Amino acid sequence: MSVKPYRSMLYVPGDKPRALEKARTLGADAVILDLEDAVAPEHKEDARSNVQAALKENWPCPVLVRVNGLGTRWEHQDREMALLAGVDGLVLPKVEDARTVQDLHLRVPLWAMIETPAGVLNAAAIAAVPGVAGLLVGANDLARALRSRPHPERLPLLHALSAVVLSARAAGKLPIDAVFNDVRDPEGFARECEQGRTLGFAGKTVIHPAQVEAANAAFGVTDAQAQAARELLDAWAQARQEGKSVTTHAGALVEQMHADGAAEHLALWEAAQR
């Protein structure tokens, strides 16, 4: 089983050349060069040039570009630049229906941002579109659209968060959790990562270098967990050789689904070692 981890996806503003340079060294599983929300209108053209130059460099991870949204005056130039420069994928903001994505006919994977009520309600159809690699939650815009109040446990957003996970997983795509805004609160970030992992997210978008390692740890597999997965798979292989469809290991019932889960964990751990 070959798995590419997306435990951390780091947003980097396109109008910050030094940040673009540093991003290659931070250990994120993917980097999102941002031309949208992080860049003021008067800096859009410079940001596009900076991102174009950055895409010519060698990167140790997949590099995506978050383009400006459909209907903006920058959208076509953003997409053309990124595609011609050889980007690994595009991040499209505020996706609200599947037809929008289908009509783009892109040649690279698309990551659709779900950040409006309509996007949440149509997330299953969006995720099912061929070429969509995953769904990214945009919680700030979503909370604003819902008129919800901030809550440390994200209670007003739990239904939407779970809907994104359910939609992505049903289509065999990756759900990625939203950013955590307060870079001065590592404890809060760790709690939100744990919540996201518990809900079923595959990783988290991050906005600061200090958040990368914590996200990798929260959505990753430890050495101890990898060893436990190996032992469970060994026990399952022995059981199958004996003609059993159910066995026990470490005091727990083991069936095919448990072996599949262990194989996935081990594949994630192996991928992170590369």
From TrEMBL:
Requisite cofactors: Mg(2+)
Domain HpcH/HpaI aldolase/citrate lyase: 7-209
UniProt entry keywords in alphabetical sequence: Lyase, Magnesium, Metal-binding
InterPro entries: Aldolase/citrate-lyase_domain (IPR005000), Citrate_lyase_beta/mcl1/mcl2 (IPR011206), Pyrv/PenolPyrv_kinase-like_dom (IPR015813), Pyrv_kinase-like_dom_sf (IPR040442)
The name this protein goes by in its record: HpcH/HpaI aldolase/citrate lyase family protein
UniProt GO molecular function: lyase activity
Protein origin, superkingdom: Bacteria
Residue spans crossing the bilayer: none
Lineage: Bacteria, Thermotogati, Deinococcota, Deinococci, Deinococcales
Keyword Magnesium: yes
